[in-house]
Amino acid sequence: MWMVGAPALSAGLMVGLQAQSSADPTQKQVTLEREATDLVGRIEKVAYEVQFHVNRLDSLARSVSASSLSHYEHLDSIRDLINGRLRNTLGRLEERTRNCRAGSKRVSPG
Fold this sequence. Notes:
Strand content: under 5%
Shape: rod-shaped
Radius of gyration: 19 Å
Order of helices and strands: HHH
């Protein structure tokens, strides 16, 4: 589930950024696109880490000998990944996208 969403987000974001940039992109636009690509990569990394913990929780749920502490540790890890790294990265990505849009609106055609 996570693996499908992150590449789709990446592709959609890049199409949006490229459509908003002028035919001759400025250095700032190129920098913003690179930063956005880096941020999408970070989102994908968090998604893979969350998926790891989800898989571990799934296998622990089937185990009779798994401790409650193991469940809590994986749930805490998932919470920290989403509330910490993912939230921060998505916020920065949104800010970069807004900056790119604002920059492309300032460029007058012709």
